Amino acid sequence: MQFYCKLDERPVDDNRSFDYEIEIKDTDPELFLQMLKYLCTGDVIYERDESSHFLKNAIELYSIADKYLLDEFRDQTEKYIISSMTIENAAAIHFKSAYRWPELKKKVKQFVADNFAAIIKTPCYEHIVKNRDEYPAFFEINTEILMNPHKKELADYD
Questions:
Q1: Counting Cβ atoms within 10 Å, is residue 112 exposed (0-12), middle (13-18) or buried (19+)?
Q2: pTM of the full structure
Q3: How do residues 123-154 score in pLDDT, each as one tens digit?
């Protein structure tokens, strides 16, 4: 079986060997391998932590794609994050991570603002409020959500 590497569109010879070693200290090896697999095949496997509804590796993969300027990979991962967002996990995504990237933040913030009345009743949001010192942008994010002119449900909040 032969596959093509997206980097140069040449067939990849599985019998090639290299004597190079590159140490990458700031990225989890499994996540870096996922990135390399994406570069060679265009495929990526996202994992989900069902106990917390958090997108286990998608946020980290988004970070790696952004760091290495892999726009297609970042865009694909962003689409996965947005399509996987739920009332239960939106607060975790927004307060833990998304605020760091303006493009992702904008989309996540809109979802949170549109569903704020439901999101603030979730255990995840309650945990964030109780532990707000662990979330550096807690007050800034809440202010942005509350000031969002496009919010749908805040008028219904009791």
A1: buried
A2: 0.74
A3: 999 999 999 888 888 888 888 877 765 555 44
Structural domain span for residue 129: 87-158
pLDDT tens column, 2-11 = 445 555 555 5
Angle between helices 138-146 and 102-114 (to 10 degrees): 60
Q: Identify any residues that bridge with 54 across adjacent strands, giving them in sequence order.
A: 49
- Residues 76 and 152 occupy one common structural domain: no
Helix, strand or coil, per DSSP, at residue 11:
strand
Q: Are residues 6 and 50 in the same domain?
A: yes
Give the count of domains, the chain. 2
- Cα–Cα distance measured from residue 79 to residue 89, given in angstroms and rounded to the nearest whole number: 15
**Residue-by-residue DSSP string for 45-62:** ----BTTTTB-TTHHHHH
